[in-house]
Amino acid sequence: METTTHPSPATPATAAPARGRALPTVLLLLTVFGPISMDLYLPVLPALTTELGAAPSGAQLTITACLLGLALGQLLTGPVSDRYGRRTPLLVGVVAYVVTSALCALSPSIELLVPARFVQGLAGGVGIVIAQAAGRDLYSGGRLIRYYGRVTVLSGLAAVVGPLLGGQLARFTDWRGLFVFLALTGAGILLAVARVARETLPPDRRTSGGLARTARDFRALFADRRFLGVVLVAGLTGAALFAYLSGATYVLQGVYGLTPQGYALAFGLNSAGFMVFGHLAGRWSERWSVHATLRVGLAMCLLGALGLLGVGLVGGPLAVVVASLFVMVSGVAVTTPPTTTLALEGYPHIAGTASAVLGTARFAIGGVAAPLVGAAGDAMMLPLGIVTATSMILAIAALSLLRRRDLPARTVEIALIDPAHT
Q1: What does 113-169 look like in DSSP terms, one character per residue?
Q2: Tell me, what DSSP letter sits at residue 86?
Q3: End-to-end CA separation in angstroms for the chain
Q4: Whole-number Å distance between alpha carbons of 167 and 341
Q5: pLDDT tens digits, residue range 77-117?
Q6: pLDDT at residue 60 greater than cutoff 70
């Protein structure tokens, strides 16, 4: 008979193993895999395009491949970590990330770089899903919201450092050297994981039953209308963000003439907004509610996306583009802690699987949106506006699925008050 233990909502916060300052710090470091894999080489993406003799849409496939790899890597890792624990899959994933980053640096053509980036994304997705699931192992209530707020902040910080560092490294090395840097970064994280990361999911809280059990867990998640609504909102806001990541380098450098260093500064400004507003979102979610914070974030995203669409239709100065990007990207940050909390709060017993579905939606939908902004070649201001505005309109429409009356009776609700203070 297949069995699994469903702990009470308070369990992670009151009886979590392996607590301490070092472990949460290392878990948070795992969240850099996504932004640093995407952002570090964005300032040299046009140079990569030229050197490999690829079309802009072909070079953007290296972004799409990484995004899809990050999505699939999470989807595979989540159920595995629910069954076998968090630490072993994590070590395997980080080692694979180091190896594949080195392979990206050695790729002689765009045809080989694209699949190498896909495998790099697969490996990077392991760290992302483990960071979210292990956080759910350790925390609940207010502590869980604050943890996901810190995850968002660190992702924004990595996004700030990534393009700035990439722009500076581009003065001394080419795009291949940047992938070598990613390999070295992965090696540093591997050392930290090996020394500090202990198991957060004890055997008595793991699932069992193999593929049949995993299939039932996925069916339970997709039968939850509220969970689906959160996943769609997260995925569509991710689409707007990754459309920006894919298209902004060509818009700001190709249309507005910024240098790689100038682009890195503009990108860093937007990423700083992501970091600051991600921190504020954690506080707002506790002070107001996760639903109210989510609505504020979506409104910011829509405002910024409509600004980009307006510039694409009638033109506008660089300042309007940068301001619109800032508002939209900051809005995405505001939506991140609420969507993550809403998705995982009701599923402490399969946090890895729930986190995998959420992360897959963010990266997979983003991976589909990213190449769409290259449909018009280098002059892609209008496609960027269309993709981001459409994504946000659909995300707001998906809010209808989050109505509480649609919540299945079997779903566990976790109070937003820290159990330690009750």
Answers
A1: HHHHHHHHHHHHHHHHHHHHHHHHHH--HHHHHHHHHHHHHHHHHHHHHHHHHHHHH
A2: S
A3: 37
A4: 34
A5: 888 888 888 889 999 999 999 999 999 988 888 888 889 99
A6: yes
Beta-carbon neighbour count of residue 368 at 10 Å? 18
Question: CB burial class (10 A; 0-12, 13-18, 19+) of residue 416?
Answer: middle
Determine the distance from the C-alpha atom of residue 414 to the mean position of all C-alpha atoms in its chain, rounded to a whole number: 24
Count Cα atoms within 13 angstroms, Cβ side, for 108: 0
Give the pLDDT confidence score for residue 379 in this predicted structure: 54
pLDDT at 171: 82
Handedness of CA 135, 136, 140, 142 (dihedral sign): positive
Query: Do 356 and 79 touch, CB atoms closer than 8 A?
Result: yes
Q: Which of 159, 144, 230, 194 is nearest to 418 (CA)?
A: 144
Closest CA to 127 of 31, 252, 47, 195: 31
- Of 157 and 398, the structure prediction assigns the larger pLDDT to 398
The CA–CA distances, whole Å, from 60 to 119, 242, 378 equal 16, 11, 11
DSSP annotation of 253 reads: I
Q: Which of 179-188, 320-329, 367-376 has the lowest mean pLDDT?
A: 367-376
DSSP single-letter state for residue 81: H
Contact 326, 269 (CB under 8 A): yes
Closest C-alpha to 178, from 271, 237, 264: 264
Task: Supply the DSSP symbol for 1.
Answer: -
Q: How far is CA 276 from CA 38, 160, 279, 289, 336, in A?
A: 20, 11, 5, 19, 13
Strands (E), 286-381: none
Write out the DSSP string of 168-231. HHTTTS-HHHHHHHHHHHHHHHHHHHHHH---SS-GGG---SHHHHHHHHHHHHHH-HHHHHHH
Residues 348 and 16: beta-carbon distance below 8 Å: no
Q: What is the mean pLDDT of the chain?
A: 80
Q: What percent of the chain has pLDDT over 70?
A: 87
Q: Which of 44-53, 157-166, 177-186, 209-218 has the lowest mean pLDDT?
A: 157-166
Tokens for 185, please give them.
Answer: 């970064």
Percentage of residues in the chain with pLDDT exceeding 90?
Answer: 21
**pTM of the predicted model as reported, rounded to 2 decimal places:** 0.72
Structure tokens at 239: 């689409």
The pLDDT value recorded for residue 18 is: 42
pLDDT at 408: 42
